[in-house]
Q: What sequence folds into this?
């Protein structure tokens, strides 16, 4: 069986903005609530922006007087900016293949490991 090297390459001191679905964002996975204080200009502006639909997110507003709660459904992008160090997930087996993400890379590794176990069992 061909030898394989599993490599992760990460650039030094560089981050990139990443979408919620790539960063495994908990807000995207479970939904979230945003509390805004309507006594402040920033709170009123943010509430108006959300209510106008410009945020592009689906929400339910829970009225509360001076403080309002917006409950956002799961499965949509949150308001945070996720930053990450970009990794390259590589397998070197004669030529070098690049995997899309860590999950694909781990699946490849698990499959290869399983084949090695089978080969060792057979002798």
A:
């Amino acid at each position: 069986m061909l030898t394989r090297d599993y490599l992760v390459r990460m650039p030094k001191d560089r981050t990139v903005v990443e979408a919620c679905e790539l960063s495994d964002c908990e807000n995207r996975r479970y939904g979230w609530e945003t509390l805004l204080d309507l006594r402040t200009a920033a709170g009123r502006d943010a509430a108006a922006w959300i209510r106008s639909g410009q945020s592009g997110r689906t929400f339910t507003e829970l009225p509360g007087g001076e403080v309002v709660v917006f409950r956002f459904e799961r499965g949509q992008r949150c308001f945070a900016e996720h930053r990450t160090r970009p990794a390259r997930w590589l397998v070197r087996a004669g030529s070098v293949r690049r995997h899309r993400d860590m999950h694909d890379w781990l699946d490849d590794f698990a499959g290869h490991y399983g084949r090695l176990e089978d080969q060792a069992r057979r002798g």
In short: The two ends are 13 Å apart (CA to CA). The mean pLDDT is 88. Strands lie at 5-9, 16-18, 32-37, 59-62, 67-72, 82-84, 88-93, 95-99. The helical segments are 20-23, 26-30, 41-51, 102-122.
